[in-house]
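INFO  loader      accepted 1 record
INFO  loader      residues=278
INFO  predictor   begin
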Amino acid sequence: MLFTILFLAIMGIVLGLYGKFHKRIPILMYHRIATVPGERNSLPAEKFKEQLDYLKEHGYNTITLNDLYNYYVKEAPLPSRPVILTFDDGYEDNFSTALPMLRERNMKATVFPIANWVGRENKWENFNQKVTQTMDWDKLREWKAAGMEIGSHTLNHPFLTQCDENRLEQEIMTSKMILQEKLGDKIDFLCYPYGFFDDKTIAVTKKSGYKGALAIFDNVPLWHQDMFALPRIPISSKQPLWEFALKVGRFHIVFILLRKLERNVKRLARRRKKSVNW
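INFO  predictor   done
INFO  writer      dumping tokens
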């Protein structure tokens, strides 16, 4: 009797979670597609190929953020097993390495270039990152012509939560205008640098005419979908295929929940350490 009650309780929880999250679409976050020793955010090309092949073999369909918007806001249909691939910063290897693989498999992806760093070395990254090049305007136009999507990653990649309102408008609104002028197409989505945002950031993003914005896991709601706080799942350089399979599965939201918990625990530990030092 006890076993039956426990089983029914577990099944109730599973069905409840499925009902809550089965319409949520996994959004994967990439940066460089290259082998860079010691760089967690750079995925080797062979691993990227392995992941794309997994998606293809298991019936996943890549969609754009505009497809996602139409699904959530206009209730437009989506193909089976949808997934979104995003690339932050607009590195040149997204074009030279990732794009041919995507085209070969008839897949879509979204890149978020930094408007003031298009076609330049990644010197906004003062974290001992290996110097490399970003896509120039011609490469971004070819990316778009290949059926891919482009969004904004601000003007200079700042911590938006540390910007005053004037700086926020410059970073969010002006980057959109520059990208639209240079690429001759509408820019509908913003990607928050470092994944950090707050209510003020969202307000300026909406005011600037975006349809939505992407974060990572910090400060994102889990129990409802917010188009201006879309959570993403980071794909690391040493991502095993079995974990990748879970990250694109029905309960991918669990990974975001775990990262949120991890971040909160670390914050609590830092506060305690600071209070002890005082």
